Amino acid sequence: MLQSSVWKLKGFLFFFHSSMTILVSYMPIYFQSQGLSGSQIGSLLAIGPAAAIIAQPFWGFMSDKWKTVKRVLLICLTSALGAGFLLFQMTEFFLLMAMMTVFFSFTSPVGGLGDSLAQKVSVRTNVSFGSIRMWGSLGFGISSLVGGYIFAIIGIGNIYYVYAFFLVIAALFCFLSPDSAPSKKPVQLINALKLAKNGKLALFLAMILTISLTHRMNDSFIGLFIIAIGGSESYIGWAWFIGVLTEAAVFAFSYYWLKQFHPLTLIHFAAILYTIRWILMSVVPDPNLVLAIQVLHGICFGIFYLTAFQFVGRLIPEELESTGHLLFIAVFFGFAGVIGSILGGNIIDLFNPRTLYMVMTVFSVIGVFGSFIYRAYYFRSDEGKKELEKLRST
């Protein structure tokens, strides 16, 4: 019965990530159409990740505390729908900043909670996590392609109505989806706070920050970059579609490649690919070649995110799994998003979008070295030594 209802969870992920396409891909264009500068857009885009830094671990802890992911998801989805309506009625910059905080306090935890629910359901149903999560990527990619044509017809000013359409359908699928199995261990705030003393977790999150920073810079400004080199809104849609389609393929076959390599080896590989990707973007002469380079998006992000998300589960107690997942999401999309949006917006104002990708290359190189340093540290720990002994005996 539970296994047959997995398709409802896939439907939720598909339509929620479809709604997120509208925000990630077209919100910068919307703000630009409202007359905001690059630095103002960067500041507004930083509000969402800043709110996520607090909101994501909070809602993750509440889902562990209440022993339900589904009900927390429904609270966040319905609240985001109402807050979004108010947000897109505003034009005053400081009011926009305040409303963005409220809006993303409910929007930002949904992706991580959805992934956490998918991970838990995949274990209970013996269905691979990647085969469930790929539907979120498909939703993101398809709506990014369709969204470009929709906005070319109805105008970017109607962004909320397209966003709300996808979000309402996502909420309906979420209502029908299975919930997580509650942990038998009680969850107290003091237990969650102890995660701050987890050295392996803290260093792992610090290591991924340099790579996720470049990823979030690209998320925020690839639309402006495409327009700067002569592309249109439809090119933005195609860029996201191609990138996320390859991402979905990586997720779909994750059952096979995850078993072949250690997670930290896969993280090395993804970090190196990110570096190659940003080098290519920094020299690309026209938007058509950007579409070709976007194939690397799915490979880089698909391997890096899926591997890191599941590796976090090794570093935290089972009863705090959602809290740990949302803490990881807060770093990947929150901290990295704040720094990336502000820094990226100012680089564009002072120089140009191409310079931004040169800076991203430097950060990704730091991430490559960081991943090797963390690997050496991890395999010196007790857990790492046990893993090495197990690998050598097989």
UniProtKB/TrEMBL annotation:
Principal localization reads: membrane
Tell me how this protein sits in the membrane. Answer: Multi-pass membrane protein
Which keywords are on file for this protein? Cell inner membrane, Cell membrane, Membrane, Transmembrane, Transmembrane helix, Transport
Spell out where the chain crosses the membrane. Answer: 12-29, 41-60, 72-88, 94-114, 135-154, 160-181, 201-229, 235-258, 265-284, 290-312, 324-344, 356-377
- Its domain of life reads Bacteria
One Pfam entry for this protein is: MFS_1_like
Secreted as a keyword?
Answer: no
InterPro entries membership: HcaT-like, MFS_assoc_dom
Ranges of residues in domain Major facilitator superfamily associated: 7-358
The cellular location(s) given in this protein's UniProt record come to:
Cell inner membrane
UniProt xrefs under PANTHER family:
3-PHENYLPROPIONIC ACID TRANSPORTER-RELATED, BLL5896 PROTEIN
Protein name per the record: MFS transporter
Which organism is the protein's source?
Answer: Evansella tamaricis
